[in-house]
Design brief:
Layout: E1 6-8, E2 18-20, E3 31-36, E4 39-44, E5 52-56, H1 57-70
Antiparallel strand pairs: 1-5, 2-3, 3-4, 4-5
């Protein structure tokens, strides 16, 4: 299944609450996840101004399901 990803800029007017991944390591190699209306956005914790990946909610649920099945 191919997923479409869109690069977003970090400078959007919508206020978003970002949460660091619970699987983040102590070495700074982690991501943050933010929710918008109908989208899930992911960004690099070390480079918060560097942009975001945006996924449709259905795509994000499919990703999480695959991760849970694999591990």
């Amino acid at each position: 299944m191919a997923t479409e990803r869109t690069m977003m800029t970090a400078h959007e007017p919508e206020q978003m609450v970002w949460q660091k991944s619970s699987y983040s390591a102590g070495n700074g190699a982690c991501v943050e996840v933010g929710l918008t209306s109908g989208e899930v956005r992911v960004r690099d914790t070390k480079d918060r101004e560097g942009g975001e990946l945006a996924f449709a909610a259905v795509q994000w649920r499919a990703f999480l399901s695959a991760v849970h099945r694999s591990g």
